[in-house]
Design brief:
The chain is an alpha/beta fold and 458 residues long. It is 24% helix and 28% strand. It is built from 10 helices and 36 strands. Bound molecules: uridine-diphosphate-N-acetylglucosamine and magnesium ion (MG). Uridine-diphosphate-N-acetylglucosamine (UD1) binds at residues 11-14, 54, 78, 81-84, 86-87, 106-108, 143-144, 156, 158, 172-175, 201-203, 228. Residues 1-232 are annotated as: Pyrophosphorylase. Its cofactor is Mg(2+). One of its GO terms (cellular component) is membrane. Mg(2+) binds at residues 108, 230.
Length: 458
């Protein structure tokens, strides 16, 4: 089958009014990726080398987004939404290039798995002209029903065109189809619009093909993989299913999730074996974690690279560009952005490290802040190997702390500190013996005098 060429035509022209959104429906995200991009991924995983995206509503926004998530895709604009067959025909120029297999997919069915598509393509390779991907939803209302006669698929009847008897059929059209490229355009061009909605239905190619004695078959996919998204409740349902699958895969690949249902992954999270993730952790896009890391509870991590055996959290926030090298530690209530924390360095408590390097083995005391921004530009802080930054220090960038540099607690450091130097950036302490007691007595007698004067007034 691998020698057979394959085009995926992804229908995404619909408005999606039930999302109640200014954004085209298929650009709403699941696991941080537009749902139509999930469909593209599945098509590619099933071997589609050609990608045709049929757009309509929000075409400009769709083109811009597609350039990012599917730069190889061609876009075709369907000017009027006249039905799913009409939409597929919008990609005529791509189909007529002569692919062996044409996979018709829906941009709003993001959980479709590559296996269901591969099974359908296999049936084409065995000689079928049309393969319909069917499924058995808990409630079939609204779906096209698969009409079979003598074990053969003869028609798909849309709900609105079904007889009472046909409405009882539980085996439904998931919407997606695999069509032999040699027949595709001929079948599509034969579709008319004499039905309850006056639309050109893709589903009609089943009846047309069986009338021509072509081989038409149905395969069965899981309900979940055929889930179509029409509103935000269904979007959340798809997100939940996606997360559940991803957690399961992570655990089977050697990652411990103590409370899996509270850990959220992105479409591109990479996480190595023997990593332990405590409850309530959020992975935004662009996170890579090597093996043996510990991610403690309530950490929020995006765009970060975490090397082996790092310790993160609880309550850590790693923002884009955070780069933790082996055995680095970022503890509670710390925020790291665009900064390298080199091997074994510790940023343990209540600290902000942004636009910086923290050298290997350095220790950053509680409450340290890299002051990286003057309201207009960002500046860099370079902290050398083995440096010690005393608690509650402000490092005003641009500034360099040399290797082994030692910063006194409570310092405001505005000038660079050479290797192994000690820097104080605060007023020297002054201690006056007995002065505390004297002050207390003075304040007490002043208060008593005031009270007495107030009493005399009455
Ligand atoms: C379709 C199937 C139905 C199946 C159901 C599964 C047809 C005629 N019916 O119905 O048998 O059970 O999906 O969810 O195919 N689109 C366009 N241009 C158009 C019309 C639709 O791009 O002119 C796109 C939509 O944006 C959507 C997809 O095609 O992504 C499906 O269209 P939709 O209107 O949702 O079809 P259903 O009525 O759900
Ligand atoms: Mg639909």
């Amino acid at each position: 089958m691998s020698q057979r060429s394959c085009l995926s035509v992804i229908l995404a022209a619909g408005e999606g009014t039930r999302m109640k959104s200014a954004q085209p429906k298929v650009l709403h995200q699941i696991a941080g990726l537009p749902m139509v991009a999930h469909v593209v991924k599945a098509a590619e995983a099933a071997g589609a080398s050609g990608l045709a995206l049929v757009i309509g509503h929000g075409a400009d926004e769709m083109r811009k987004a597609a350039a990012k998530f599917a730069p190889k895709a061609e876009t075709f604009e369907q000017e009027k939404r006249l039905g799913t067959a009409h939409a597929v025909i919008a990609a005529r120029a791509a189909i007529s290039r002569g692919y062996d297999d044409v996979l018709v997919m829906f941009g709003d069915t993001p959980l479709i798995d590559a296996d269901a598509l591969t099974v359908a393509r296999r049936r084409l390779a065995e000689g079928a002209a049309v393969v319909v991907i069917g499924f058995r939803p808990p409630n079939p209302t609204g779906y096209g029903r698969l009409i079979e006669k003598d074990g053969k698929l003869t028609a798909i009847r849309e709900e609105k065109d079904c007889s009472e008897e046909e409405k009882k059929i539980g085996f439904c059209n998931a919407g997606m189809m695999a069509v032999a490229g040699a027949h595709a355009l001929k079948l599509l061009d034969a579709v008319g619009n004499e039905n309850a909605k006056g639309e050109y239905y893709l589903t009609d190619i089943v009846e047309i093909a069986s009338a021509q004695n072509l081989d038409v078959v149905a395969t069965e996919a899981s309900f979940e993989s055929a889930l179509g998204i029409n509103n935000r409740a269904e979007l959340a349902q798809a997100e939940a299913i996606w997360q559940q699958r991803r957690r399961h895969d992570a655990m089977l690949s050697g990652v411990t999730l103590i409370a899996p249902e509270t850990v959220f992954f992105s479409h591109d999270t990479e996480i190595g074996a023997d990593t332990i993730v405590e409850p309530n952790v959020w992975f935004g896009p662009g996170v890579r974690i090597a093996s043996g890391a510990k991610i403690h509870a309530f950490s929020h991590i995006e765009g970060a690279t975490i090397a082996s055996n790092c310790d993160v959290g609880p309550f850590a926030r790693l923002r884009p560009g955070a780069d933790l090298r082996n055995k680095a530690k970022v503890g509670n209530f710390c925020e790291v952005k665009q900064a390298v924390i080199e091997d074994g360095a510790k940023v343990n408590h209540l600290t902000y490290i942004g636009d910086a390097r923290v050298g290997a083995g350095a220790n950053i005391g509680a409450g340290t802040i890299t002051c990286n921004y003057d309201g207009y530009s960002k500046f860099f802080t370079d902290i050398g190997e083995g440096a010690f930054i005393g608690s509650n220090s402000s490092l005003v960038a641009p500034v360099t702390i040399g290797n082994g540099g030692y910063i006194a607690s409570g310092s405001v450091i505005t000038e660079s500190v050479p290797d192994d130097a000690l820097a104080f950036g605060r007023a020297r302490q002054k201690t006056i013996p007995g002065k505390g007691k004297e002050l207390r007595e003075r304040f007490a007698s002043a208060a008593a005098a005031k009270k007495k004067a107030a009493g005399a007034d009455h």
